[in-house]
Amino acid sequence: MRVLATKEGAQFTEELLSHDAAAHSYEYRIIESPLPLSGYVSKIEVKESRSGSRVVWSSSFNVNAGASDEEIKKTIAGVYRAGLDSLKANFNQ
Q: What distance in Å separates the CA atoms of residue 66 and residue 78, rounded to the nearest whole number?
């Protein structure tokens, strides 16, 4: 379990579901968040590529009633982009 906080103060509680060191992957779920979604499960994998490594971050979730599917997808994509850009900045030196 871990709690992540954004710069704006939003908190996300996550639970690790699986970790496979040999496959360079892990899976987690969000237990609590300010986002109008449920059933969020995500997997992060590091795969070999010709130029080094490639990170694949995928998820599935349900958008709660009253929320916009497109807006939630855009929000999640923004979180992924920020996380992947941070990885690139820290490991591509």
A: 21
